[in-house]
Amino acid sequence: MSMDLAPGGVVPHIRSIIPSLLPAERAVAEVFLERPADIVEMSSQQVADAAGASRASVVRTCQSLGFGGYQQLRVLLARDAARALPTQERSADGPFAIVTETFAHVGESIAAMTALLTTEDVTRAVSALASAESIVVIGNGLSAALAADTDARMRSLGLRSHAPTDSIAQQVAVRLLTDRDVALIISGSGATSASTKAAQAARERGATVVSVTSFARSTLAAASDIALVVGMRDLSFQRELAVTSRIPHVILLEGLMAALTDALGDRASAAMAATLEVISGNLGE
Q: Cα-atom radius of gyration of the chain, to the nearest Å?
């Protein structure tokens, strides 16, 4: 079941259903009602701990309330919370000042972007990609463009890569992978169901799953062999959904391409030369 509630309707809906719930479900629903703003940033296990229930009870409660699952409830609560937030104040005045202030904010966020990256994870990711027989790159929604760009970049390095854009095609592609292949999956929230399903299916086939996301406790990170977690300073799940920023992911992927170029050596040089030859033959005068 999937809810289609009007903005601002999530909490009233839960309140109207709660009397009919079983005791364990009612305890979970009470947490939803008492801490709606916190729920946006909490994992299902954290909600379970707060309610004195199991993680399975959290999922069942969401379904009993008519939601498709906990992730859908979080997204709808984030939507409702965003409506209640005042418009973000800026110290800058005018378009040019706002643009330059944005550059400054990105610069100030660099340390936060790399805080959760580890030498081991980055090294493993580059090694897996460099040695893979084939690579499937997946991104949905606002991550689709990053997936397409990354796919093109890897092919220019001589890697066998493709990035299906249709969710069904993605599911088929990962089911054709083997333990010699890699699935590279990009999702800011880490909660997109199509991307998570692809990660799970790829792991079932024995492929190495490398994810790029902003949240370490996301469902995508949990379904990955290697989770590369990067985000902006002060990034929350709510802001990731409402004011999505792909800047950290773009920089990370750019870094991975540079590391791959180095790891592949002559193979990458030869492939890049062939790519440039094709490009030069398609440039106008």
A: 21
Give the span between the Cα atoms of 167 and 43, in whole angstroms.
25
Which residue, of 84, 118, 137, is where some domain finishes? 84
Residue (of 68, 73, 3) closest to 38 by Cα position: 73
Q: Which helix (H) or strand (E) holds 127?
A: helix 119-131
CA gap 157, 242 in Å, rounded: 35
Tens digits of residue pLDDT in 182-197? 999 999 888 899 999 9
The CATH number for 72's domain is 1.10.10.10
The H or E element containing residue 11 is helix 10-17
265-281 pLDDT tens trace: 999 999 999 988 888 88
What number of CA atoms fall less than 13 Å from residue 237's CA on the CB side?
26
C-alpha to C-alpha distance for 10 and 14, rounded to whole angstroms: 6
Percent of the chain at pLDDT > 90 equals 56
Residue 225: CATH number of its domain: 3.40.50.10490
